[in-house]
Amino acid sequence: MTDNRASAKRGEKVDHGGSYTGAHVAGPGLDTSHGVILYVENVTVSFDGFRALDALTFYLDAGELRCLIGPNGAGKTTLMDVITGKTRPDTGTVFFGNNLDLTQMSEYEIALAGIGRKFQRPTIFHGHTVFENLELAMRTRKTVWTTLRAKLSGEQQDSISATAETIGLLEHLDSRAGLLSHGQKQWLELGMLLMQAPQLLLVDEPVAGMTLQETERTAELLVSLAGTHTVLVVEHDMEFVRSLGHKVTVLHEGAVLAEGNMNDVQKDRRVVEVYLGE
Question: Model pTM?
């Protein structure tokens, strides 16, 4: 097999069917000069003989918003585990940009490199305010104890306010996180990830349990993040996926079954048979 990552390093643009053509944004030390931020190539992961990922090849453009769908057991969670270093592949390569080999990095190193993951159930500090949650999440070498007592610079305060505005919680900065609605708690956790300045956001079922209004707001939020960040969303709500209006990848039995816009994917007979139904 041709090593596409190596080809990209030699100056050859990788052809992987990506549709995002906007600005490519990357953090210091991350090389996305060829437009691709994530290379997953020939990755196989097995658990007791079961192949959760089967020679999977998957690419993400820098600044892209992509939805990942598929039936239970298709490999969606395993893929995210591999990207974040929680699970090591049996074979294959995973590169963040052209230069960072994620299979050789710890979970902590991967997070510092600029990959943030949001799980389905929000993990926030319920007893603290929205402001304090965002402050605690800010990238810093300080301990939690000193962070809560340190005087914030004007730039840091502006960053917290800007993030709160982005997630729609600017008017709730002094509210206890535990008193927020379910949707607001989800947005707060996403804001906490944003405070860490990630280049790639992995978002797992963000609208589960949300009201219709919260779901619509979440779609707007994720779309607004694309370009400045790369966003990979795992979701089962097909109407929500459609509302995002971006490229969809369908996984089945650990490999890519189909890719394209939602209309094309829903017309694919293979996708209908294994996932969407008639």
Answer: 0.85
